[in-house]
Request: fold
Amino acid sequence: MSTSEGYSAKDEVGQVRTRRTWRQRAWIELKKAPFTAWVGMVVIAIYLIVALFAPLIAPYGEAEITPIPYAPWGAEHVFGTDQIGRDILSRLIFGARNTIGIALATTFLAFLIGGGLALVAAISRGWVDQILSRFVDVLMAIPSLIFALMLLSIFGSNITSLIIIIAVLDSTRVFRLTRAVAMNVVVMEYVEAAKLRGEGLGWVMRREILPNIMPPLVAEFGLRFCFVFLTIAALSFLGVGIQPPTADWGSMVRENASLIQFAQFDLKAGITPLLPAAAIAILTIAVNFVVDWFLMKTSGLRDEH
Amino acid sequence: MSTDSKEVLLKMRDMRIDGFSDEKWHEIIKGVDLTLHKGEVLGLIGESGAGKSTLGLAAMGFARPGCRLTSGEIWFDGVDLMKESEAAKQKLRGARIAYVAQSAAAAFNPAHTLMEQTIEAGVRHGLSSPDEAREDAKKLFAAMDLPDPNNIGDRFPHQVSGGQLQRAMTAMAMASRPDLIIFDEPTTALDVTTQVNVLAAMRNAVEQFHTAAIYITHDLAVVAQMADRIKVLRYGVEVEEADTQTMLTDPKEEYTKSLWSVRSIEKEAESADDKILEIRNITAAYGKVPVLKNVDIAVSRGKTVSIVGESGSGKSTTARVVTGLLPQLEGDVLFNGDPLPPKLKDRSRDQLQRIQMIYQMADTAMNPRQTVREIIGRPVEFYTGKRGKAVDQRVKELLEMIELDESFMDRLPGELSGGQKQRICIARALAAEPELIICDEVTSALDQIVQEGILKLLMHLQEELGVSYIFITHDIATVRAISDEVVVMYQGEVVEQGGKQEIFSEPHPPYTELLLASVPEMEIGWLEKTLTTLGEKRAAMG
Reply:
């Protein structure tokens, strides 16, 4: 057999590929990231720093009342004070902490519920899948803001119920996405191989499927975070979200909304209620920039070269 | 197959093509020359990664995404495609140069009828009116030997069989009467019994319309039937080129000779009375569709049983019943004399451990996010209860058994070659210390030389460990190489079973006869000879 001479399985050439640590790979990807993604990342980083170090950065306390309500912009209060004399800048800074923190917690919970159930549905198929999917359909059929308003008025607006209610409502979309992407992985032979080995549901979910569907889930996490964040702001604006004296951007817009009428006398006073709105908008856009880049990179929607 | 007109149609000079991977450009075609005369068929052969498809596409002046044509000349009928604009090249493609892809099912748009898609290119290039094109397409369907050529065009791609679709695709390529057709592994995905007819239809069409063709394949026997000349490629360079006759009988290069001699392994068939697995009278169905009817198969301990048949014959379904993925409706699976519970979840860990499976596509059989250490280590941990260092030690031993070493421990599947991947899958099966391994088409996605290595490894492991194999395949050469006993299946039933010698010697039941006769041989003129006899054999089957 002339073929075996010089043939060795070890020397077979695989794909030409240098071994890199994940740090090196991440750095290569970052270097290729477009300008918008960089802007997004920088903005998100600033928000996170502000949120983490709020007590150090803010000139006044979160609910600290100073003698002058509706103080104009100036040296004492950079963005003035609100209707009961709380420093707007300080409340914006603390607001970052509350709004982002609650939104993050809610999104995590939504992923835990939606993602977990979706994986169970995708792996078990059959009636388990049917029941879960139809239940999710029912939840999605009800307009979520109205549903959230109703549930909040039943269970009362405290932070815990706010987080749970929004997480449950948002988990439906996470469920749909996760189930769809997991379905593509579940049919892979390595999943079958794991089942044949006798592995339990937990192992198949965590070790075989989850690592392979991470990219779309991470992108969805970003988008979901934005929606949750907007929902919380909307609920707070309507008065059933985060309750005073906790600073939060949605309720700050509502509390200072009337100031907008004074724009003709004092432009700065008119801008004041728009500041928390801008804080919401900028963060949402920044997250979207990053998510866009990430989606473009992982979905292969566009040719790289 | 005439080469009477010696007019040159396509000439590639010092072609160089780069491919992008790992953040860099690498040269994948390193200066290849190619000349094709009018009406001539050139066979391009080589292993995967040799650059045959890339070179074939370059003949159209096309580089697929992630590749770029760096230098060289592509003279097509007096025009250098390297210097032409994209628009000018697009005019040529589909009109004067056509391409037939490996997977017709993926190349057809499922939302349109065959007819619409067949005439689309011709009409868009303004070569004919839709009505004329339709009439012409019917003629082509007839030339391609498709059933009911006048009406088959109204069907959608999913309404015809794989072989018919591949023929329709050739008809589509022929529609504009191109000067050059590039066939890229057009029959690789088909069953042997279907392949014969598709090959014949393609060759007739090429001869009838005096079209030049580049035929890309890794199957030597196929290329021997189709090509006037053969060019062998390896690592992006030409190994040698000669006319088919010379190439078959007198290859010059060592590498070519090695390709030719691969099919020569053969194991001495033995049988044993001690049966490790007995499948008794199994009937199984997907939903209401019956797929297995009263199947009886027995596997001797320490021996290899091959199950052969075309797709849809129920050979993989048999494996699913044995592994418990598809519980049977009737019958028993006896393992070491004891019946196995039909459902996977009713089987004990011990029962699962004894039967392991190796899949056709090593790519999808391994989790791309796990390293070799995790892939092989998990069954070691799971079944033997070893932990930590002991697992690593065992993984190392297993890697040595499959002729790799510990440097592979931390690699991801994406960093391995096709053969290495399949070896890791074998190691994963061995890690469970099984008594029976089911190999489902384990070599069919691999190059010939790699295939040979895998088959030898499997035989060696059998000698050493005494493990039994069920070897599912549609490739007769593999069956000859590895099996002790053979089971021939057709439409969910066992047609014939017995020792290898018995099966391969006359007389055969009609189906076995057809199956064996359809396997291309490395001999010029085999196709003509076979076609005349095959008709009778089909008739004999009813």
